[in-house]
Each structure stands twice: as structure tokens, then as C-alpha cells.
Amino acid sequence: MYRTVALLILVCETGLFLSGQYHDATSIAIVIAYCQILRTACSFAPVSEIVFALLYTIVAATPLGSDVMFGFFGMYAVCIEWLVRSWYLPSIAFFVSSQVLAALTQSDGLKTSVISFLVGTVIIIVSAYSIRNHRSQMARVTSQAQADVDAAHKASDQLRQDLAVLLHDSTAKDLSRIALISRDLQSEYPDEPLLAQLADIASSASRRVRPLILNLTIQPHADTLTTIIAHAQQMLATRSITLDVDIPDMLDALISPQSQQCRIAGLVVREGATNILKYAPRGSAASLDIVDDGIALCITLSNTVSDNVQEGMTGGFGLRHLDEQVAAIDGTLSHMNLDGNWIVYATIPHERTADAITPTTN
User: Fold this and answer.
1) Predicted confidence (pLDDT) per residue in 105-149, tens digit
2) C-alpha torsion 171→174→180→184, nearest 10
């Protein structure tokens, strides 16, 4: 706005100069000063605005105020901008003082001065209201546009999360189960080559699915931890594997399903159950123990390892990726093969103390 007003003043005063209204060097210098200050007001507000207000007030107190006729455009612009910013007192003081000084030093008469004051007041108030309303609308439009962009990003992220959960919790696990069942049937029907081919195809497909899962944002649905454990028991029951569970009473009351702790603990249980499904003998028993020591959840998964482990079958995140997830919240994850028993031990710190816990090796 200031650059437009500066150009308007320059054009109008140039027209007066060319028409021979005045040739005073001081007036020309004042016009140039007005225009230059207004141009810089775009980048150096409010300093340039204050400098212009002081210069305009000083000029208005002298006879030169009547020579520079169109300087009031700049005064209007500054007053309008200050009203838009809710700087009411500076705007009123600048406008009133400049009008009073102009009335005292110029010979336009009281009636002309009053009309000029009233017209200027109306112009400034209406213009300030219009500009403020326009800027408010633009701010609302910008805010709504940003909200729409954020909603689109959120929807995209949710779609990726849902796809990752679908791949992990259904497709990848189903492929792993097909491979495992095919291997079991192959031992019962060794003369059937199609079973071996089916197992190889399922294992290969499972390996191709895993990179897709790892490249997507994994955010499982907000199931309670007991629900996740129940799903793990149901999954293991497909191979007649019994999961013995020892967990605290009211576990779901201690851990909110929406918490980071529940999400990571759920990942540990899911991945642990997937590994048990892959590596434990059919009809065997496994155990899951969860202890809350007041600082963290301590999760222990244990199962016997089959003598006929089929390498290359994968159905979940993998322990390496799981370790990254646990370490991200200052938890710990360790695993070992102890006398034919595969043991996974994880500590998932409570969110209120996660920052104070230092990871240790178990």
C-alpha cells in the first residue's frame, strides 16, 4: 500500500510542478522525502511510519504544508495502517494534530478545515475497516487451506498406516502360516511335490511383502494390550501352540491403548508371537510374562526351538526393526538361545519416566 501511495503523491505533485503551481526547491525536497520514506515503510515499519508522521506534522506546522498539497495521502495511509493494527491512540493523535496544525497555518477557513477533518475521518475509518476485514478473510482462507493440506497429509498417512497394518497382521502372517502348514503336511505326505512348491512360493511372497511393511509408517490400531495378547494366543493356536500368559491384574487400566508404551509393547508381543509361530514345534508350549516394576513394563517371551526350523520364512517386522522401535523410547530389547529355549526380553519405560531411563544391555 505504501509504495502505491508514494507513487500517487509523486504523480500528483509532478502534475502541479509541470502546471507551474510551484517551483520551490524546498517543496520538491519535501515531496521526494515523503515518497522515499513511504517506500521504505514497507520494509522498515514502524520506524519509517514514525519518521513520516514526524516530518508531516512539522511541515503541517509551517506554510510549506499548503505547498505540498498531496502529502495528506501519506498521512491517510499511515493512519489507516495504524488503525488496522489497532494502534488507535497513535493514529488519532497523528491525524488530529496534523489537521489542527494545518487549520492554524493555512488560510482555508474554519468551514473548509472542518469539512476536511470530517471527510478524512470517514475515509480513514472506512478504509481501515475494509482492509482489516479483507486481511481477516485472507487469514481465514489461508488457515482453511492449510487445514485442508494437513487433513490430506493425515489421510495419506492413515492410509499408509492401515495398509501396513493390513500387510503385517493379515497378509504376511497368512503367508507365513501357509508356508508352515505346507511344511508340516510335507512331512506327512513326502511324495507330494506340490506341497514343497507351495511352501516355497508362500515364503518367497512373504519375503517380498516385508520391505513394503518396513517402508510404510507402522501404527497399529489402538487395541488394548490384553486384546493383542488374545490375538497372539489365537494365532498360535492354529499350530496347536499354547501360550501361557502371566500378566498384572487390570493391565489395560495401567496402560492406555493410545499411549506410546502400549504401542511398542504390542509390537513386542506381536513380533514375539510371530517368531514363536515360525520356530516353535507344533503342539508345544510358550510363555509370556509381563511385570510392571513401577518404572517400566518388563516383557519376557520364551519358547522351545524346533529342530526342523525352516530358514527364510518371515512374517513380521523382524527383531532388528523392533529393536529400533524399542530403543526410540529409551527401552531395551535382548534375545538369546538358552539350552534350546528362545528368550526375548524387553523393557518398555512408562512415558512419565521415559526421559530418565538409560538403555542397558540385559
Assistant:
1) 776 667 777 888 888 889 989 998 998 899 889 988 888 888 888
2) -150
Lay out the sheet containing 341-349: strands in order across.
Answer: 242-246, 285-292, 296-304, 341-349, 332-338
288: left (phi over 0), alpha (psi -120 to 50) or beta: beta
Write out the three cell numbers for 59.
511541515
Whole-angstrom distance, CA of residue 55 vs CA of residue 33: 9
Q: How far apart are CA 283 and CA 273, in angstroms?
A: 14
Q: What is the pTM of this model?
A: 0.42
Residue 263: partners with Cβ closer than 8 Å, 6 or more residues away: 219, 220
**Measured distance between the N- and C-terminal CA atoms of the chain, rounded to whole angstroms:** 68
* Neighbour tally for 119: CB within 10 Å: 10
As a whole number of angstroms, the distance between CA 51 and CA 321 comes to 63
44-50's contacts with Cβ under 8 Å and 24+ in sequence apart are 45/81, 49/78, 49/81, 49/82
71 secondary structure, DSSP code: G
